[in-house]
Amino acid sequence: MIQIQHSIVDSDTPIHSSLSKVQQRIFQALLKEQKIYVYKNEQQLFFELLLREHIIQAAILLAKSKVRFTIFRFSRCNEQFWYRNELGGFQLKETVSPTDAINDIFQNSHLYAFECATAIVIVFYKAVLDVLGANTFNKLFANLLLYDWHFDKDLGVKTRKGNDYIPGDCLYFKNPDVDPQTPQWQGENTIYLGDGLHYGHGIGIKTKEEIIAVLNKKRKRGATKSAYLLEQTTRIDFQYLSTFANVREHAELPIDRNRFVVGAIGSATFLYL
């Protein structure tokens, strides 16, 4: 369900000039959830749809790249752009722009190797860069460190309980009976791509069932507990980041009032399928 101040939107009217097919699928997923997603205006909603689409695109790009999966001990980076610290993380060099460094991961992917949490953060950064542009990105993220779940406060990454999985979310598969000899497989962070597909660094683009099957092969001898998808979502702060965007004028979405039950409380409008 979506709550928007002063207006109602509908993705089934002719809006192909405003939303891509991926954005339409994301929008439908938001509409169908029981949870209320609140936006101040249509532009704020459009920004989230656009950024989620770019998260999906960045995840697919990383999946198709030559980046390798490895543990922190054996991580690698392009030392023209990054210092590799003693923990296996990548610290941005002072003379390098954040934009150039993030783009290099995708352009010279064969020089990089890292684990799955770092991969998720890189996907988030790449998507924000592609939506906000180089100048804004460089100002917001001037001192990048890529290491595990370390992230700049302006990215606003937060994890919440719930099974309202929306394309562009980071989800987590837990492997409770992991083999202690391979602790890196105690779970898998993924980007949900929609249509039942996930991108997991080191696993690739797979269905939920396929990811669980891979993790189950990494269990200790005599294991009885299957890997499973946690009921939680990890997201960047879409609404905060939208304050830095120049939203396109055609972002207003047409309304089909005949397909929805509409309710209002004060100035807020509620839209139900």
From TrEMBL:
<dbReference type="GO" id="GO:0003810">
    <property type="term" value="F:protein-glutamine gamma-glutamyltransferase activity"/>
</dbReference>
<keyword id="KW-0808">Transferase</keyword>
<dbReference type="GO" id="GO:0030435">
    <property type="term" value="P:sporulation resulting in formation of a cellular spore"/>
</dbReference>
<dbReference type="InterPro" id="IPR020916">
    <property type="entry name" value="Gln_gamma-glutamylTfrase_bac"/>
</dbReference>
<keyword id="KW-0749">Sporulation</keyword>
<keyword id="KW-0012">Acyltransferase</keyword>
<dbReference type="Pfam" id="PF20085">
    <property type="entry name" value="TGL"/>
</dbReference>
<protein>
    <submittedName>
        <fullName>Protein-glutamine gamma-glutamyltransferase</fullName>
        <ecNumber>2.3.2.13</ecNumber>
    </submittedName>
</protein>
